[in-house]
Design goal:
Layout lengths: L2 E8 L4 E8 L4 E2 L3 E7 L3 E8 L2 E4 L1 E2 L4 E6 L8 E10 L4 E11 L21 H15 L27 E3 L5 E3 L3 E4 L5 E3 L4 E9 L3 E9 L2 E11 L6 E2 L4 E5 L9 E8 L2 E3 L1 H4 L7
Parallel strand pairs: 3-10
Antiparallel strand pairs: 1-2, 2-4, 4-8, 5-6, 5-9, 7-8, 9-10, 11-12, 13-20, 14-19, 15-16, 15-18, 16-17, 17-19, 17-20, 20-21
């Protein structure tokens, strides 16, 4: 169900409505949602919820914001404030609520890494790599490079899902920050949307990896590759081949690990593709 909220202010010469459109009734842990605002005198907006600030970006009909909920966010209702800036420099607040529901994450069967990869379960290695990735995902490019919907990076079937808890060799649990796809070694991996490559190199856990900045704080990552065909700074179009699948890093066999981050937060890639993104 789509919830639409309208707020109107009286001006000296007319009454004009500013419409705040919250395009969801709740968000699950590890998902994203869209809020739009429109009005003849609105020139900007910002949203604050769950202790985070989310920017709005101009669209064909107003401004849009992509909210993102961490996969470990507490399940409850959170107050939302959208601050709108008007042409004359004045501001006005719209107050709402974001309901966070369970992500329904599963516990996977244990994984057995080969002896030469067991060291990759080390917490220090994991923490360092997470920090490195999140420092990239936290950047926000005001330009939007994509058009239309994002697409899967490969036609292989889905395997390990986003948000699941995994245990490696009985040594420690880890939340899965992406969606895995079955892919034999050497399968071409495609860019999910148009964007600029910001990372292309090997990581300890993710192996040979490519990260694409799509603008508006949206990033995709493609991991465990056997080969990379792109370099940082390069612009790629949706569907371009950016590498080949493999089993590099903390992997038990050939596959593709695909991540999406929005405003510095990992979100469910499959659910993200179901969002009606603003144009």
């Amino acid at each position: 169900m789509m919830l639409v909220f309208a707020v109107a202010w009286m001006r000296v010469n007319a009454q004009q409505a500013v419409v705040v459109n919250q395009q969801f009734d709740y968000l699950r842990q590890g998902t994203a949602g869209v809020i739009t605002v429109s009005g003849p005198d609105v020139v900007g907006a910002v949203a604050v919820v769950m202790g985070r600030t989310y920017p709005f970006f101009p669209t064909n009909s107003g401004y849009a914001c992509l909210l993102s909920v961490p996969l470990d966010q507490k399940i409850q209702d959170y107050p939302l404030t959208v601050t709108l800036t008007e042409r004359n420099g004045s501001t006005a607040n719209w107050l709402g609520t974001v309901k966070v529901a369970s992500g329904g994450f599963i516990l996977e069967d244990p994984y057995t890494l080969p002896a030469d990869k067991v060291y990759l379960v080390n917490e220090d290695i994991q923490r360092h790599e997470d920090e490195r990735l999140l420092s990239i995902y936290g950047m926000v490019t005001p330009a939007r490079y994509w058009e239309g919907a994002f697409t899967f990076p490969v036609n292989g079937g889905l395997s390990s899902p986003f948000g699941s808890t995994r245990n490696f060799n009985g040594l420690g649990n880890r939340r899965h920050t992406g969606q895995d796809f079955h892919a034999t070694a050497g399968t071409p991996i495609l860019a999910s949307a148009t964007g600029r490559v910001v990372f292309s190199r090997a990581l300890d856990i993710h192996g040979e990896s490519v990260i694409i900045d799509h603008g508006w704080g949206v990033f995709t990552e493609y991991s465990h590759l056997s080969q990379r065909f792109v370099v940082p700074g390069q612009f790629v179009l949706q569907g371009d081949v950016i590498g080949l699948s493999g089993s590099t890093g903390r992997s038990t066999g050939p596959h593709v690990h695909w991540e999406i981050a929005v405003n510095g937060i990992w979100v469910n890639p499959v659910a993200f593709l179901e969002i009606k993104l603003p144009s």
